[in-house]
Design a protein that fits this description.
The complex is a heterodimer of chains A (112) and B (113). Chain A is 0% helix and 52% strand. Chain A is an all-beta fold. With 113 residues, chain B is mainly beta. The termini of chain B are far apart. Classes of the chains: A mainly beta (112), B mainly beta (113). Chains A and B meet through strand 5, strand 6 and strand 11 of A and strand 4, strand 5 and strand 10 of B.
Chain lengths: 112, 113
């Protein structure tokens, strides 16, 4: 069975600070990895995805993530956060099963 | 493209009543997923369809929940009878057969009182 762990439940940063959100997955085979963002009161939107190739993936709004296979990790990063990045961030994985398994989410609060 | 369309956006109902949630996937998408989001349990997969056929319904919590996809452009999730613990946001998502990730609908916020 596939599973996803997001260890940071709530992160508070000041504007311009750097961001790194942790994501670890559990699955023995080839995986596809995703980060989704959910702004307050809205639906989930895709930030970035990794299927294969370059383990450093760039997404929208200046976000990037690095796949480290040996650590089963896919951490999300952004060099300088903005107030508008306040949202909840979900890591997700799918292996053989088509459906995505989501982590519990990390709530990011950016203070002006 | 209008995206994935869910209705209603909000639903308040009394315990014991039947609730029907609706979803229209993006045209041409072969896969449709129903998720439930709560504070306690996060995002849980309830069921998903491929070409209108249910593939995995192991996440459907009880027999009170049922889902159908009578055609490629419409799906329903029904709860009968509803209970307060069913209160949650229910999301529908769709994806094409060449998997590139999901597109989510705006969700239905269900409150059972």
């Amino acid at each position: 069975a596939q599973s996803v762990s997001q260890h940071n439940h709530h992160v508070i940063l000041s504007e311009a600070a750097s961001l790194e959100l942790g994501c670890n997955y559990s699955y023995g085979g080839t995986v596809n990895l995703f980060w989704y963002v959910q702004y307050p009161g809205q639906h989930l939107q895709l930030l970035l995805k990794y299927f294969s190739g370059d383990p450093l993936v760039k997404g929208i709004k200046g976000f990037e993530a690095e796949f480290i296979k040996s650590k089963f990790s896919f951490n999300l990063r952004k060099p300088s956060v903005q107030w508008s990045d306040t949202a909840e961030y979900f890591c997700a994985v799918n292996g053989r099963r088509r459906a995505l398994t989501f982590g519990s989410g990390t709530r990011l609060q950016v203070q002006p | 493209d209008a995206g994935v369309i869910q209705s209603p956006r909000h639903e308040v109902t009394e315990m014991g009543q039947e609730v029907t949630l609706r979803c229209k996937p993006i045209s041409g998408h072969d896969y449709l997923f129903w998720y439930r989001q709560t504070m306690m349990r996060g995002l849980e997969l309830l069921i998903y369809f491929n070409n209108n056929v249910p593939i995995d319904d192991s996440g459907m919590p009880e027999d009170r929940f049922s889902a159908k996809m009578p055609n490629a452009s419409f799906s329903t999730l029904k709860i009968q009878p509803s209970e307060p613990r069913d209160s949650a946001v229910y999301f529908c998502a769709s994806s094409p057969s060449g998997f590139v990730g999901y597109t989510f609908g705006s969700g239905t916020r269900l409150t059972v009182v």
